[in-house]
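Lab channel / #folding
Pinned by the channel admin:
"Please post every new chain as: sequence first, then the structure tokens as a reply. Keep commentary short and put observations after the output so the thread stays searchable."

First post following the new format, from NK:
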Amino acid sequence: MRSARLICAFVFAAVLLFLAGLHAYWALGGTWGLSSAVPTINGRCTINATSLATSVVAFLLVLGALTICGRVGLFATGSWSGYFGFASWGLCALFLLRVVGDFVTFGLFKTVHGTPFAYWDTHLYSPLCLILAVLAGVVASGP
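Reply from TO:
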């Protein structure tokens, strides 16, 4: 079972690190994929994705990857190991909440459809978050 947890951790961390790099790219002014990355209603963005906010998201994604890696013992966590377990369950819950969404612009139960973001949310973002939640749950449930 340890090898399954390691594989789950590596996949989880790789996805989060890729997404962190993408957010860092956007924070530095990149525009590739940006038009489909922010939910819109009637052509207006529903969030103000500043460079600082996008950098914070990139940092939190790296932190999430490190948390999962620490949970499976890829580096010494010492007396903090209990916190890594708790934080791994938190990541599982966080990604499950993202799957459910806000019932308006994102998640499986959104009501706004017909936008580039809504399309990608239905076909990529929400399913990916469900997979990430499962991966985090597998890692968190181990010894």
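NK: The longest strand covers residues 40-41.
TO: also worth noting, The chain has four helices and two strands.
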